[in-house]
Structures are given as structure tokens and as C-alpha cells.
Amino acid sequence: MQVTKPHFLDLIKNKKWRELKRSLQDMDALDLSLMVENFSKNDKIILFRLLSREQAKNVFKMLSQSDQEEVIEGLSENSQKLSRLLNDIEPDDRTAFFEDLPRDIAQSFIEMLSPEERKITVQLLSYPKDSIGRLMTPEFVAIKEDMSVAKAFEHIREFGQDSETLNVIYIIDNDWKLIDDISIKDLILASPEQQVSELLDHRFVFLSAKDDQETAIQVFKDYDREAMPVLSEEGVLLGIVTFDDILDVIEEESTEDFHKFGSIQNASKNPLKERILILYKNRIVWLVLLVFMNVFSGAALASFEDVIQQVVALVFFLPLLIDSGGNAGSQSATLMIRYLALGEIQLSDWYKLIGRELLVSFLLGLTMAASVAAVASFRAPEVIVVVCIAMVINVMLGSLIGMLLPFIFTKLKIDPATASAPLVTSLADICGVLIYFSLAARYFGF
């Protein structure tokens, strides 16, 4: 019988530990991790004390960082249980957990590891943050090319139990330099008497331990692999990166880009558990900067005070015009950032896109001008010409700003996601006010 959250809490309340432990044994790790997401800290600890070592390891890796920290803190009273869990966690998952902890706390946990696991952890943490070395695991199976297929399977059976994946087997020389990789399918279909060397084509794809994690995303996307070997500068096989680790990186990168596009400085792990001060600090910097940017819009309005006093109807269309320019710019920026991230366009393609963007934005501007003309014909027919021309120009200019900013930021080695919607909108607002009232002043003879 699968345990539901209410049933779980009821068993805890009535201290039916044996029944609870027996019920948990048949539950999947994913179901367990989903069930305990909203548990209190105390209930999480009870759960982990009842799980088997294998279950505890698998459930732990599926929890959020904040939930993981609660579990570790709760188990700290039982150093043996905590040490066992930290040693059981896969090296790459353990590295991901440790790198987000304060250094002194991470170090205290590292001291609880066995000598072998400690050596692995220290090595992985020695690689630069966000490098592929932080993602890899040393748990893989490697064989020699002079083995027979039958001998290779004996080796796999002996050493493959703790491997992260057995879908790909790596071929190394005596110095642990990678020669090739081979799928387990090819080994299974080969004759037991064949030499492994007869199955090799010496064509393989690899990653460097010091490369950025975004490199791994692109390589996995290009070559459609389940796992990828990670080599040192000398070609020595250090570990492997698996597809599930890349999915986690993609999720983190996407979350970070969404936050940047909303002008939020740092991503929050969980807004329900994050401190108010942290949430405030993550958002206030860009908001204050944008306030000062929008002062220019106010200054532009003040310089056209005479025009506004004489033709008050112009004010009615001001929000509509500047919002349209900002919205068009945000659309364009979103598309460019996405195309750059996917590699569908390159930095050198910016000049090829200008003509296309001008034509598209001109057509958009004309359509929106027709719409605003219909509104102006009822509200203020005398400003139709000014409003329509301003609409076309604002939409075209806003689109160009939104298109070019990601390229400029990329050229300056800044994440193009920083060319966020609020920034594009603020720039389009300033330009929109100047264009609109400059046209009005000339048209009405001020």
C-alpha cells in the first residue's frame, strides 16, 4: 500500500513506526520526494530515518537545496546516519549540494566522508564554479581494447554496479587516456570471442573538465548522447557527465535568464522559504536604476510643456504610444535572446537582421497606427496625423532597440538576458516621448 501524506502523518502521530517503514519500502523515490515537499522539518527527518540507504540517497537528490539543507541539519544529531547519507550520495549530486553551502559548513561535511569519497569531492570542488568538472562523476566503467568481449563483460559485472550508467563503456589505454567509447548494445551483439579493438572506430566526442557548463548543453544537444566523457588537458579520462545532470543545468540556466529578463538580480531558491531581506535585495537594484532612467522621460515631458498646454488631447495618447514601442521592443528582445541562446543566430548576424526587423516593425507600426487612428477619429481627430506617424516610428525604434541590445551585451561579454524587458521598455519610453512631442511641436507650429 502506497502511503499518502495524511496517512503518513497519522502513522507518525500514532507512532506506528514498523507499519510506516514497511509501507515506505515499496514507494518510488520520486513519489517520496513529492510527498515530503511541504512536510515540516521534523517530519522530513522522521522519513529519512525510516528509509533504506538506497532510498534515502535517491530521494535526497530529488529534493530542493533548501529541503536538502533541512534534512542534513536534522540528521546532524546522529553523526553516523549523516555520515552514511553523505557517503552514499552520488559524487556529482554531493558536489552540487556542497557548492551552495557556506565554505566552513561544507568543509565540516567533507570531513565526515570516507578517505576515498573525500578525495573525489575535493577534486570535483577544485574545478571552477559552473565548469563541467563540477558536473562530472568518476563512477563509470572503462575497459582495455585488448580484452575479448567475454572478458569485457566479466569486468563490467565486477565493477559496473556503482556506475552512473552502463549504456556507454569507455575504452582506455594503460595511462587511462581515452581511446574510444562503445555502446553496450554493440558489445551485447558482438561475438564473445571478438576483441574489443575490432569494434572500435576511434571516433568519439568528449568534454574538457574546465569548459563552461553551457558548452556541455550545446554538445549534448548537437550529438544527442546519454553520457559524455570528461577529459583532462592530457586526454586522461576523469569522469563522465550524464544527461540528467545536463537537464538540471538547463533548468538552472533558464531560471536565471527568466530572472534577468525581469530585472531580478539573483534567483531565489524558494520564495516561501527565502528571507524577506534577500527577496528585497534581489529586486531593488534594477528597480532603483530604472527609476533614474525614467527621470529622463519626465525631463522630456517638461521640455514640451507649451505643446501639452495648447493641445491637451496629445496627453490622452501618450501612454498608448510609449507602451506600444516598449512592448514591440520587449518582443524583439525576447526573440533575439532566445535565438542567440539556441545558436540559431550568431553575433556576426546582427547587420543581416536589421533590414528584416525594420520591415517587420514598419508593418506592425502601420497596423497599430490604423488602430490608433480609429480611436483618435472619435476622441481627437486633430491629432490623428501626429499620433499615427509617432506610432510607426516608436514601434520601429523600440523593435530596433530590442533587437540590438542583446547583440551589444553579448559583444561586451554580458549575458544578453540582462537586456531585459524593463530596460528595453525604459529606453523605448524615453525615445517615444521625445519623438511624439517633437512631431507634435513641428506639426502644430510650436
Automatic annotation (TrEMBL):
Transmembrane region(s): 284-304, 310-337, 358-378, 384-409, 421-444
Entry keyword set: CBS domain, Cell membrane, Magnesium, Membrane, Metal-binding, Transmembrane, Transmembrane helix, Transport
Cellular component aspect of the GO annotation: plasma membrane
Keyword Disulfide bond: no
Organism of provenance: Gelidibacter gilvus
Protein's cellular compartments: Cell membrane; Membrane
Protein name per UniProt: Magnesium transporter MgtE
PANTHER family: MAGNESIUM TRANSPORTER MGTE
Family label: Belongs to the SLC41A transporter family.
GO molecular function: magnesium ion transmembrane transporter activity; metal ion binding
Matches recorded under Pfam families: CBS, MgtE, MgtE_N
Name of encoding gene: mgtE
